[in-house]
User: Fold DUF31 domain-containing protein from Ureaplasma diversum NCTC 246.
Amino acid sequence: MINKKRLLIISGITVMAAASIIAVAAACTEEQKPEQKSNQKQSDSKSGSGSGVIRNNSSKNSIKFTVALESNTLNYRNQKHNLTLNVGSQYARKIVEVELKPNSSSSSGSSIKSTKAPSNSKGEAIVVFSGLEHNKSYYISAVNVYEDLRKTTPIVSNSYFANTNETLVVKTPAKGDGSNNAGSSKGSFDPNQNNFNPGSGPLPNLDNLEQLQQHIARIQKEKEQREKYRPVSASVPDLKIKPEQAYEKIKNRSFAIGFNSVDYAKESNGQINDSVVPFEPTGTGWLLDYAWKKGEKTSDEVMLYIATNAHVYNRAFNAMDTAYKSQFPEYFTKEERKDAKVDSFVLAVPKKEAKLNAIPSGQSYGPENKLQYFVNAKNHERFSSERVFNDIEFLKEGEEVIFSNPRTVFVALNIFDEQRNKELYNAADNEEDRKYSAKDFAVFGIKVNYKKLKEKAGSDPKYKLLLDHIDAAMKSIDDDIKKFSEKKHPNHDQSTTPYLSLDYPSMWINKDRPLDQQLDKAKYNIDNNTSLNIERAYIAGFPKIGSSQMLWRNYPEGSSIPEDAFNGNSFGRGLGVSKILDDQRESTGFGFNGFVDFSSIYFGASGSLVVNEYGLPIGIYSVTDSKVGDKDISKRGGFTFLVQAHNDNKNQQTGPSRTLISLQAGPAHNLIDGSDQEKYPYQKKSYRQNLNWLSKQDNSEFKEFAKTAIFKQGA
Assistant:
C-alpha cells in the first residue's frame, strides 16, 4: 500500500496540478475549518546548515507544530525558487504549502503562496515559488498541511507575524546565483518532442531530498510546457450558436433542487433522530430526458428525468423500491438506517425576467435572478428560515401533489462489472476500505401531474411559471434531438441521443496512439471535424449568493477568455464522492474532469449543465475552488464528462496524452447510454440500462414511462 501511495502522491503533482486547489463543490456548505489542535512540542530534526527551529511559546503567533528549514537561502532552479523544510514526522506523507511575505514594513501585506508538495516519511518537503524577486528578504507568514492534494482546507496551520523571535526569515539568491534556463520559454515549442513526457522517468526516493528536488523541478517544467499546449478547436461556423443562445438553452433546461430528508440516525444519547432536515442540500439539476405516460402526449402525467451531481443527490435516501435492492445495493443505506428517506422535495425555477448578460466578477445580478420555489409538502415551522429569504409555494390543505418525490434511476456508483469495480477502488490509497468507485453524476425521476399543473396555472401565475418552464425544458430536448440528428456536429455521432459521444481527453490519447491502436473511425463516427478542443464551455446554474440561490453564469464581463478552452493542464481524474446515499459510504473517483477558466461559480451551482459552442451538452459542473467568494467567477471551475471513449491500458506512449493515461481514469463508459458493449464492454449500469431494467419490473413506477423523448421505442 505504501508503494501505491507514493506513486499517487508523486504523479499527483504532475497530473493533478490543475485540480490541486479544486474541491468537490458541496451543494451549499463549505468545508470545516482546520482542526484546532493544542500546541505540540517536537524534537528538532536534522535540517542542515542554517536551520531555524520555531518554538511553541508565542502569544502572538499561532503555532501548532514545529517547522525546521534546511537553509535560510532559497534555491533557484528552472526559473523558480524552492524551499526545503521539515514539518515533523507526524505530518509525513501529507501535503505542505508555505506562504511568504516581504520582510519589510513598507511592503505589501499580501502573501505569496508556494505550490503544494508532498512530505516524505520524515516530514521533509520541497515547495516551489513563482514571482519572487532576486536578492530579497522574505519571512514565512504561514505553513499549511493538507491531508492530500484534493483538499483545500488544511488539517493544521501555523501563522507568523514579522519581527518576532519565532519568525523564520529567508532570502532569495542574487540573480545568476545557482540559476539556470532549463525552463526558458524562448523559442518554439513542440508538444510532441521527446522531452515532453509528463509523468515519465523513474520515481524518486521520497527519503532522498536531492532526488525529490530534481523530480519536482522536472515536473514543474513539464507543467509549464503543458500550459503552452492548446490544440485548436475544429470549427464548423454554420453550426455554432451565439453565447446568449447557449445560456438561454441552459436556463430553460435547469431547475434548482433541494431535499427535505430524514436521516434516521442514532445520536450520542442513543435516541434515533427522525426529524426532517429541510433544504439540505440544495443544488442544480437539468432535464436530461422525459416521458409521457405510456408514450402518449395527451396523457395527464409526465416523468421528468433530471440529472445532477451525485454529491447533490447524496441525501436521497432509499429512493427506490426495496424490491430492487439486490440489483442496486449501492443505492440504499445500511440496514440500521433503512427508514431514512426523502420526506419531501424542493423544485425551483428562474423567473421570466431573469437575466444572463455578462457582469464583472465580484458584482451581483439583481433580485430578478432570484427563484420561485415549490415544495410538495404543507407549510411547516421547519421551513421558517427558508421562507425569510425565498418565495416558496407549499402544498395547500386537501390539494393534490403536483410533483412526486425523487425516485432513483441511476447513480454513477460501481457501474462496471465486479472485476473492474474492484480494480478501480483497490488501485487507490484505500485506507478507508472503500468498496465503491464513483463519478459525480446521478439521474432521478419525478412524476408531474401535468393535468393538475395546467389547471392551477390557469389561475395562479406562479404555477404558470412552473408549467411554462417544464414545457420549455421538454421543447429544448426535442429541438436538440432534431438539431444533432439532422446534421453532423463535432464529437457527436449524429444519433438521437443529443449529448457528447466522443470526449476530448480520449481524443488527445487517441491521436498519440499507433494507427492500428486508434479508435475505429466508423464505429465512433470520427471525421475531419472531430475535435481535440472546444472554444467555449458555457455553464449556468443556481449558486447560493448570500442567503438565496440565484441564476448565474460563467465567463464574466472583462475576462480574457482563451480562444480554445483546454490546454495541457485542463484534465484531471474525477474525485471520489463522500457519503453518497449513506453517511458511511466513501468512493474512489474515475473518469476525466475538465477545467475551464473564469468558471468558479459558487456552491449551489453543482450539477449545472455544460454546453459547448455548438450547444452540445458535454458535461455536468461538479468542482470549484472552495476559497472563492460567492460572486467571484474569475477562477477555474471543473466539470464531469458524460462519456469516455478511452479504455485504460498499460501501453506506454509519449506526447501530451501520457499524463492522461497516468490518471488511470478507468474503463470506457457512457453515463447516459452504456448499452453498446462494443464501445463499453465492461459497463453494466447507465441511465438507459437502469431505466430499461426498472421498466420491466412488476409494479415499477417507471413501467409506463420507458418510452422517452430520447428512446422513443423504449429504454
